[in-house]
Amino acid sequence: MTFSFAIIAFITLIGAVGALAFRQIVHSVLCLAITFTGVAMLYLQLGAQFLGFAQFLVYIGAVTILILFAVLLTKNTGPTISGQVYSASWVSGVGVGVSVFVCLAWAILRTPQLDRLAAEETNSTVKAIGLSLMSDYVIPLEVIALLLTAAMVGAIVIAMNETSTQTTMQGANHEKGLK
Amino acid sequence: MEALLIAIKARILELAPEFLQFPLGHLLSITPVISVFAGIFALTTWIERKGLGRIQNRLGPNRVGPVGILQPVADGLKMIFKEDVVPRSADKIVHFLAPILLVIPTMLAFSVIPYGNRLVPIDLDAGILFFFAIGGSAELIVFMAGWSSRNKYAMLGAMRAIAQMISYEVPLILSSIVVIMMAGSLSLVDIVAVQTGGFWNWHVATPWGFVGFLLFLTAALAESNRSPFDIPEAESEIIAGHMTEYSGFKYALFFLAEYLGLFAMTGLAITLFLGGFHAPFPFLNWVPAPLWFFGKFAILVALFIWIRGTLPRLRMDQLMGLAWKFMIPMSLITFAAGATWHYAGKGLLAWILCTPMLLGSYVYLGTALTKGQKVSKRVYRFAD
Questions:
Q1: What pLDDT digit, counting tens, does each position of B229-279 carry?
Q2: What share of chain A is helix, strand, coil (3-state, %, to 5)?
Q3: Which partner for B113 in A43, B267, B309, B343 could form a disulfide, CB atoms 3.0-4.6 Å apart?
Q4: Residue of A nearest to B155 (CA)
Q5: In chain B, what is the straight-line distance between the N-terminal and C-terminal CA atoms, in Å?
Q6: Which residues constitute the domain of residue A163?
Q7: What is the percent of chain A where pLDDT is above 70?
Q8: Model ipTM over 0.90
Q9: Is residue A103 part of a domain?
Q10: Least CA distance to A50: which residue of chain B?
């Protein structure tokens, strides 16, 4: 465990704790952004440049903004959430968490791969990733593209009715304004 | 010139002890970038005010120093000593952090742009991806500024800014993807290396490159919230948008970040389309490469000032319509034009095939954008 890993892990964990502990939802989202940044930095530290930047671009630039819009569209955007942040059944929650952690730690520590010295040098340059995406993994890529296109078309279809009523309303207001 | 700069850096590093060489080397790369672009920022504010004054038939600043050239110094001093007003109901920590955080990504964006032969702070394998990833975080920080102010105008301005930045990021990235396709690399150093040998080898001298360059410039203007796309901070509608509740040096930081963001975009436009630091003719290669870079930079900044002085501000629906109905389809068509260019041999045949393709879609999309809108003389109710 190197020094830089310790710093990055600390930042990531602090962000995650903050995302759970804050009463104000927007504060939680901002802490989540810190966690996403920490994960991106972890990828960069492991030498996965493309993955790190893509993580930053997608999660900070898009997902966080999406969550923020969703938060602002909900009703409860007041300064504080009423009531307790912590659930009443926190004892059982801690119990579940600890048991999951113990199980995972036990499984990780028992894996034979732990004895290996270091991962062999992998060819993870951007060019190699691009070439393998376009040759070996072209069918999964196309399936994902199709799925995303379908989702986008669906979103447009849902939004289309609303815009037509809005434009008529705008037109009506405009006419009123002219009179 | 760049050989001299690199030699100076190597000499300084030789003098330093071994353990200091790594941090010192990076410090010597970072300091010029920060100081040069902050200096250009100060100079640009003066040139912009002078230029706008000329366009609007007045003198502009002319009190401080000869022809007002010390005006940025005076403004900077005023900003530092101004009272820092924080609204009582504001979210103090987020309100404080937003202007500071906004400067970081804009500064980082300069670190991947090549300014001359071997003069690039970091030569990243995925340099252009780094540029856009870092630029994408600005939206979150603008939201922080608008939300933490607890002001309706600030919030409205922030929402407008986010909607605009998300919309225009798409054509911005799409128009630069064509360049990545043609150069076959995400590294900005490689993209510049493809364009050596004179202006006819620059990407802007191809049909897809010319259209891509115009799309990129328009999207860059919108991305950095500059006129005619300055809806998020429209003074006459929502005071100053997300900057409404900021005063003193924090406001200056927002201003700085806005200009630095525009400069970074300009640098990227030069790198992608205008041949980076290369001379337009091979016989001019004796002129130091950074001078070519900054010469092109100065021309583009002057163009931005000219645009600001002459074009009126767009309306919100016009802004969105331009991005989604015109610029995104157009940048997708430049993809097809780029592919045609590649397979038609990059010669006369490619010109004959690509030009009608791009011109036809430009005319079609342009007429489709204004279809259904009655374009007639504006009727003023009170001003007549």
A1: 877 776 666 777 788 888 888 888 888 888 999 999 999 999 988 888 888
A2: 80, 0, 20
A3: B267
A4: A72
A5: 60
A6: 123-179
A7: 75
A8: no
A9: no
A10: B126
Tokens 């979210």, residue located:
B91
CB contact (8 A) between residue B133 and residue A50: no
Distance CA B220, CA B182 (A): 21
CA closest to B137 among chain A residues? A61
**Residue B307 · residue B221 · CB < 8 Å:** yes
Q: Which residues pair with B119 in a beta bridge?
A: B116
Give the per-residue pLDDT at A129.
82
Is residue A90 one of the residues assigned to a domain?
no
Number of domains in chain A: 2
pLDDT bucket at A142, cuts 50 / 70 / 90: very high
Q: What is the mean pLDDT of residues B126-130?
A: 87
Q: Is the separation of the CB atoms in B179 and B273 below 8 Å?
A: yes
Q: Is A39 inside any structural domain?
A: yes
Say whether B87 sits in a helix, a strand or coil: coil
In chain B, which ranges are continuous DSSP H helix?
2-15, 18-55, 71-81, 92-109, 127-136, 138-148, 152-183, 188-194, 207-223, 235-238, 248-273, 289-310, 316-321, 328-343, 348-370
- Read out DSSP for B220-250? HHHHTT-TTS-GGG-HHHHTTGGGTT--HHH
Q: What is the pLDDT of residue A85?
A: 60
A133 with A73, same domain? no
> Looking at the partner chain, which of B132, B162, B186 has a beta carbon nearest the beta carbon of A65?
B162
Q: How many domains does chain B have?
A: 1
Tell me which residues of chain A have a C-beta less than 8 Å from any C-beta of chain B: 24, 26-27, 30, 33, 49-50, 53-54, 56-57, 60-62, 64-65, 68, 125-127
Distances (CA, A) of B166 to A54, A147, A173, B46, B320: 16, 21, 29, 30, 10
- Residue B21: give the domain boundaries: 2-364
pTM: 0.83
Nearest to B338 by CA among B350, B352, B321, B325: B350
Q: Cis omega (within 30 of 0) on the bond before B228? A: yes
Which of B115, B109, B379, B133 has its CA nearest to residue B263?
Answer: B109
User: Tens digit of pLDDT for each residue in B19-39?
Assistant: 777 778 788 888 888 888 889
A73 and A128 share one domain? no
**In this structure, is residue A74 part of a structural domain?**
yes
AA identity, residue A67: I
CA A43/CA A54 separation, integer angstroms: 10
